[in-house]
């Protein structure tokens, strides 16, 4: 796709035998990342998978490493820290911490398999100011189901919290 939204990004293929990240179809948000290695993930196992790619995102951008829905649905494979954060200043190899959430089936990842997808977005850089009081809002401090639908947040066990009542 060649539109005014195209963002030039320099990449280095640390593993020249792999295909560079690419969008599977026009209009995709995520460019697929490939595994540089073969690995078998046992049930419940995680593995930091190298992709053979390093890149330089322009300042003011971030790369988000998202799971692929097909891998998730078919094999229970996800990204532990989804979405992984690729900082604009990071010049190392992009790696993907895959997790096999299936309770009984192992899954084999082959070299060259598309294991995750990189979504590049603009980000703001916050300048934090400490104040005594925050401006009012309709939501206020309500969260964690406060608008209804999933029961009371008080019913949710929180590690380390004293017993309710
Ligand atoms: O899924 C990921 C997440 C991160 N990274 C790389 C790029 C990112 O810029 C760097 C640091 O990531 P993050 O800030 O999430 O990790 P951290 O645990 O905070 O480590 P650090 O202290 O290095 O920031 O690691 C990856 O290759 N894959
Ligand atoms: Mg960090």
Layout of helices and strands:
Blueprint: E1 10-13, E2 22-23, E3 30-34, E4 39-41, E5 46-56, E6 61-66, H1 69-75, E7 77-79, E8 84-86, E9 93-100, E10 107-109, E11 114-122
Antiparallel strand pairs: 1-5, 2-3, 3-11, 4-10, 5-9, 6-8, 6-11, 7-9
The structure holds deoxyuridine-5'-triphosphate and magnesium ion.
Describe the structure.
By secondary structure, this protein is mainly β. Helices cover 4% and strands 35% of the residues. The chain has one helix and eleven strands. The strands form three sheets. A five-stranded antiparallel sheet has the order 2-3-11-6-8, with no helix packed on it. A four-stranded antiparallel sheet has the order 1-5-9-7. The chain has a two-stranded antiparallel ribbon with strand order 4-10. Strand 2 (22-23) and strand 3 form a beta hairpin. The longest helix has 7 residues, at 69-75. The mean pLDDT is 94. The structure holds deoxyuridine-5'-triphosphate (DUT) and magnesium ion. Deoxyuridine-5'-triphosphate is lined by residues 65, 81, 84-87, 90, 94-97.
Structural class: mainly beta
Compute the number of strand runs. 11
- What string gives the helices and strands in order? EEEEEEHEEEEE
Bound molecules: deoxyuridine-5'-triphosphate, magnesium ion
Task: Return the average pLDDT rounded to an integer.
Answer: 94
The residue fraction in helices comes out at under 10%
Largest sheet: 5 strands, antiparallel
Largest sheet strand order: 2-3-11-6-8
Strand share of the residues? Answer: 25-35%
Question: Low-confidence parts, pLDDT < 50 over ≥5 residues?
Answer: none
What gap, in angstroms, lies between the N and C termini?
59 Å
